[in-house]
Amino acid sequence: MDGCFFVQPWTPCFSRSNTILLLAFTLILSTVIEALQVIGGNVTVVQGGTAILSCKLIDTTETLSQISWQKITRGNPVNVNFFVVSEVDGPQFVNGADDRFKFIGSFEEHLASLQLSNVTLRDEGTYMCIFTLFPSGNHKTDIPLNVLVPPVSSLEDNHPTLGNEEVSLVTCIAAGSKPPAEVRWLMDTLAETVRETTSFTHHANGTTTTTSSLFGVASKEIKDHLVQCVVTSKATSKEEILYFNIQVYFPPTEVRISDSSEGSFECVTEANPKADFTWTRVGQAWPQSAVRDGATLRFQKMTSDLNGLYQCEASNPYGKKHSPLYVHVASDAGIACWILFGLLLIAVVAVVVASVVWYFYKSGRFTRLIGNSLSRTREDTRGERTMVPTTSNSPEGPLRVEEEAAEGSL
C-alpha cells in the first residue's frame, strides 16, 4: 500500500444547528441593546450654583456591573475617569477626590445621577455617564454642562473738564460675563446732546466684557444730569440699573468774600469738586483772636491788632483762586484820648468864659454894658415911632429930636 494516502474529511466546529442558535442569540442580544437607553441631557447652571447631572438606564434586564463617570472640562481638557459606583463598594472617587460631587442616584434603580455644587467656569465641559452591563458591555451618554457667568457691572466717571470739545463723559462696564451682556442707556432729553459707543472684549476663559461710553461736550448745562446704565444678561433673572449724575469738573471761579455777620466773613466760590478754603494773613503773624473754620473767618474780639491784609484762597485739583480782605479797626486807646481831649477843651472854654464874665462883673462894666444895651434897645424902638424929618439947618434940631426921642424913650 505504499504510495497511498488517506484523507480524513474536515468536520466543522459548529454544526448547522449550532450556527442557527448563535445567530438567534446575536439577534436577541442586538434587540436588547437597541431597546435599552441611557438618558441624560444638557445642563445649564449659573456660576456658583448647583448642577444636577442626571443619568438613567432604562429598558434592560441585563445585570448592572458598574457605573462610571468621565469628564472633559475647560479646566482639564483631557478625558479622565473621576467617579465609579459598584454594588459591592458603593460610590468612590477616582484620580483624586472632589467633595463638590455627590452621588444622588441608586445602583439598584440604574440611576447614576451626580450633584455638583459651587460650579465654576472651569467645570464647564462634557460629562460621560457609563453603565457596564453583562453580557452586553458599556453603554453611555454625553451630558454637556454649560456654565453662565453674570457680569460684574460698574460705572466709571471719566472726569471731563469744562470745555468746548467732545469728550468721554462716563463709561458703563459689564465685565467677565458669559454670554456677553447687553448694555444700554436711558438719558431722557440728554439723548439729543450726547452719543453712546459700545465695544466687546473677549477673554481666554470664554467670558466677555461689554463697555459702553457716553460722549458729549462737557458744559455746565449737562452737569448733574441723571443717566441710567441698564445691564441685561442671560445669567441673571432681571436687569441691573446703575444711576449716575454726569459730572463736569472745573477750577474755582470768581472768589467773593461776604460779611456774614459782625466780625465774621465768608469766602464763596463755584467749583467742582467743591473747593477747599485757606485763610492767610499777608506779611504778618496770625492773630490769636482770629478763628479760621473752612470758608469762614471769624474775629472773636475787634481790636486794632487785627489790622492788616488777609487772603482767602479757594482750591481744588483743577486750580485755585484767591481774594483779598483788608481789615482796619480803630484803636480803643485813641478813641479814649479823643474823648478826654474833647472834654478837656470844653472845660477850658467854660473856665475862660466864666473868667471873662467875672471880670466884667467885678469891674462894673458888665452892669453898664447891660444898661447901655437895654437903653439902645428901647431908644431904637421908640425913636422909630417919634422921630420926624426937619428942614432946619441948625445942628441942634435933629440932635434934639434924637435926644428927645432918647429922653422920651427913657
TrEMBL record:
BP terms from Gene Ontology: heterophilic cell-cell adhesion via plasma membrane cell adhesion molecules; homophilic cell adhesion via plasma membrane adhesion molecules
Superkingdom of origin organism: Eukaryota
SUPFAM superfamilies: Immunoglobulin
Signal peptide: 1-35
Transmembrane segments: 338-361
Family statement: Belongs to the nectin family.
Protein name (database record): Ig-like domain-containing protein
Lineage: Eukaryota, Metazoa, Chordata, Craniata, Vertebrata
